[in-house]
Automatic annotation (TrEMBL):
CDD domains noted in UniProt: FMT_core_GART
NCBIfam families xref list: PurN (TIGR00639)
Catalytic activity: N(1)-(5-phospho-beta-D-ribosyl)glycinamide + (6R)-10-formyltetrahydrofolate = N(2)-formyl-N(1)-(5-phospho-beta-D-ribosyl)glycinamide + (6S)-5,6,7,8-tetrahydrofolate + H(+)
Binding positions ((6R)-10-formyltetrahydrofolate): R69, M94, R95, L96, V97, N111
Active site, UniProt feature: H113
Enzyme Commission number(s): 2.1.2.2
GO molecular function: phosphoribosylglycinamide formyltransferase activity
Name of the protein in its database record: Phosphoribosylglycinamide formyltransferase
Functional note: Catalyzes the transfer of a formyl group from 10-formyltetrahydrofolate to 5-phospho-ribosyl-glycinamide (GAR), producing 5-phospho-ribosyl-N-formylglycinamide (FGAR) and tetrahydrofolate.
Site positions for Raises pKa of active site His: D149
The protein's enzyme class: transferase
Family that this chain belongs to: Belongs to the GART family.
């Protein structure tokens, strides 16, 4: 069984999709051999009601409670490692994790991103795509490294920018694909079809 810790900073909509897919798969003849064993966040206002709803342990590690980024990262890593995950997912986690966390968890540390990387890295990828006036953007799943969305790409998919799209409408369509890529990645890792060590840089 693939044990997963997921880190969120907001509503956790991608996480909900993953949890529902895993729950649904339990009733199928070919279940996904994976389980979210903990949900973590860096913010008090993140949607930890998901953890309550699905009966999953959760933790909060607030940067403001620590003297610096390094000590916050050490505490975050300690919480993650308590659950001995095989895979850690940053799903809408809006903070760069320190190098020590990346070193300890990589390559089994992945991130979802609402753009076709290496296009539009960073926290405002959807807005940047709209402002650039491009005809298409995308969604990506990557292995986390110490850069800003620069890690090896696991999978990515193109998404057209429709006439009249604004940031909100485009982001909603991107999220649909992000969820599909995330569930697919977890399934492939769980079955052994995907070795994260073999992912290549773009």
């Amino acid at each position: 069984m693939l044990k997963i810790v997921v880190l969120i900073s907001g509503t956790g909509s991608n996480l909900r999709a993953l949890l529902e897919a895993l729950r649904s798969a339990r009733t199928n003849e070919t279940p996904i051999l994976a389980e979210v064993v903990a949900i973590g966040t860096d913010r008090d206002d993140a949607n930890l009601a998901l953890a309550e709803e699905f009966g999953i342990p959760h933790f909060v590690v607030r940067p403001k409670d620590f003297a610096d980024r390094t000590s916050w990262g050490d505490a975050l890593l300690a919480e993650i490692q308590r659950y001995e995950p095989d895979l850690t997912i940053l799903s809408g986690f809006m903070r760069l994790v320190p190098p020590a966390v990346v070193e300890a968890l990589s390559p089994n540390l992945v991130n979802t991103h609402p753009a076709y990387l290496p296009e539009f890295p960073g926290a405002h990828a959807v807005r940047d795509a709209i402002e650039a006036g491009v005809s298409e953007t995308g969604a990506s799943i990557i292995v986390v490294d110490n850069g800003v969305d620069t890690g090896p790409i696991i999978e990515r998919r193109r998404i057209p920018v429709e006439p009249g799209d604004d940031e909100a409408s485009l982001h909603e369509r991107i999220k649909i694909v992000e969820r599909e890529l995330l569930i697919g990645t977890v399934t492939r890792v769980a079955t052994g079809d995907l070795n994260l060590k073999e992912c290549e840089r773009a």
